[in-house]
Every structure is written in C-alpha cells, then in structure tokens.
Amino acid sequence: GVERVREIVEFCRNNNNIKLLTLYTFSSENWLRPKLEISGLMRLISSTIDNQINDLIQNGIKVRIIGNISALPVDVQGKLIESMELTKDNDKLILNLAINYGARSEIINAVKIISTQVKNNNISIDQISEDLLNENLYTYPASYPDLLIRTGGEYRLSNFLLWQIAYSEIIINDKYWPDYRVSDLEFDLEQYFLRERRFGKTSEQINQ
C-alpha cells in the first residue's frame, strides 16, 4: 500500500491537471480496530515519513495534514508537524493526508468554532454562511474536490469529506488500494473527463 502511495503521488505531481491529492490514511473510526493493528499503522505512518520526506521536498510536494492529530502518539504528531513545516513552501502538488479524520467530527468542530465567535459577539448569526463554515474545516483553504475515487468496490463514503464532496464526481473502483496502479488512476481520470459537470444546471445551460 505504501508503494502505491509513492507511485500515485509521483504521477499526480507530474500531471498538470492535478493540483491537490487527498489520501484517506487513518479514519477516526479506525481506532476501533485491534490495538496491535493500530500500533502497526502508527509505526507505518512514522517510518513512511522518515523514508519519503526527502523525496517530497526535492519534488516540490507540500504536505498538509487534515484531521485531529492531537490524539496520535506524540512522536507521530511531531513527525507530521515537521513534514508540514519542511514542505510548506513547495508548490508542485499539495498532498493532503487525512489522519484521524472524520467528516462528522470535522463539521462539529467547525460549528463549535463559529458558535464561540457568535457567543463572543465577534460575528452575528446572520453572518453564518457556507463560506464561513468551509473556512473553519480542516481542509481550508483547499478547493472542493473534483473527483472522489473509492477503491475496494465499496459503495459508501465512510465519513470522508461529507461537506466538501457535495458536487464531486464519484468513481467506484473494484481494486483494493494495494492493487490500485497508476494505470487504474489514468483510466479513472479518463472516465472523469468524459463526464458533464452541471452543478444543478441543465446540459443546455452548460453548453450555451
């Protein structure tokens, strides 16, 4: 799986049509897995950063972490924060790693921030808008995703970017992530570019 990440990131970095890639690395629900598996995943995250950070820097890839990393082991937190700092000026590709991420908790966190602003009279209730909520999500200031690829043949979102993907195109790929190759991504991108994105409009309006 880690090797697939390296290959996919390299492909996206070299594709001018792709500016941002988000990978669902560890969900907030993954804490329910066996403790041995969780500790193995934490070690994997840590070792992957150590092994790949120089390549990320040299290839101009900016790392951003979306999710609540305060619940992670302290050493893992440190490596994630360091990776963001070391790559903050890179501009070839933004790589979002969703770690301890859950869309519902993300939205609740944003609501709490906005509620505090209202309570402290920093903003009025009438100033609450879609833009304001978006500005307080983990993903800000990233744009909304154009395409969501769900591997493993699953037909569910699994608490991933629920707010952000309201108008994203969705492709279900039957391959599990360790088997998902660059050639599969190229095929899925071809299918995406064949789609007509209407955003609530009709085909006639789009083609005017």
Mean pLDDT: 95
Classify the beta-strand content into a percent band: 5-15%
Amino-to-carboxy terminus distance:
44 Å
Helix/strand-derived class?
alpha/beta
Largest sheet: 3 strands, parallel
Arrangement of strands in the largest sheet: 1-3-2
- Flag low-confidence runs: none
Outline, from the CA principal axes? globular
| Number of H/I helices | 7
Radius of gyration, CA atoms, in whole angstroms:
18 Å
Give the proportion of residues in helices: 40-55%
Q: SSE order in H/E notation? A: HEHEHEHHEEHH
Would you count the extended β strands for me?
5
How would you describe this protein?
By secondary structure, this protein is of the alpha/beta class. It starts with a helix and ends with a helix. The chain is built from 7 helices and 5 strands, in the order αβαβαβααββαα. The longest helix has 24 residues, at 35-58. The protein is globular. Helix 2 (35-58) packs parallel to helix 3 (74-87). The protein has helices at 2-13, 35-58, 74-87, 103-119, 130-135, 182-193, 203-206; strands at residues 20-27, 61-66, 93-101, 147-150, 169-172. 43% of the residues lie in helices and 15% in strands. Strands 1-3-2 form a 3-stranded parallel sheet, sandwiched between helices. A two-stranded parallel ribbon has the order 4-5.
What descriptive keywords fit this protein?
single chain; 208 residues; alpha/beta; 3-stranded parallel sheet; two-stranded parallel ribbon; 7 helices
